[in-house]
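Quarterly update from the structural biology core.
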Amino acid sequence: MNTWFECKVKYHKIDNAGKDKMVTETYLIDAVSFTEAEERITKELEPYIGGEFNLVSVKIANYSELVPNDNGDRWFKCKVAFISLDEEKGIERRTNTYFMVQANTVKEAYDNLEVALKDTASDYAIPSIQESALFDVFTYFGNDEQADKKKPLKRTLTQLDDEDEDELVVYQEDEDEVEEEVSEDELPEDEA
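Predicted structure, tokenized:
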């Protein structure tokens, strides 16, 4: 299971007035460990930050779910209290969970959260929504999403059909994998 990590990064940035100043920005990254979080945030930020930058801190964030919205430009930390009834004692119990919701305003964050929770079976309340200091969020892409990004090999096998030519493209996941050349004589009869 992956965990959300808050990473604070400090670097020199030129502001709108053209002055060079030191800024600290907070990013949220999905990773399995502190080591992976540090490695991934460094890799993600290298193309965007021109000079050197320092990773000031990495800490585990207590967010259970992310609710992205392409139209939103800010992230809001939303506290959701799931309500259950303790039948033995006859009291109401609240379990607090935190969601990160992307929106432009607090009202929009509330509406986006309501949409995300519409299929929830249990009762809930939203006691607080506050704007966070997150600059950006980097999610982890699992194997299913990476399958779409596999690179075709340089060499392809061509199948000749009576009516047209179809190109059979062989994919590889890792550039270091060794590729064997296959001649048409080695292919099974139905593929030759």
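The chain has three domains: 1-61, 62-133, 143-186.
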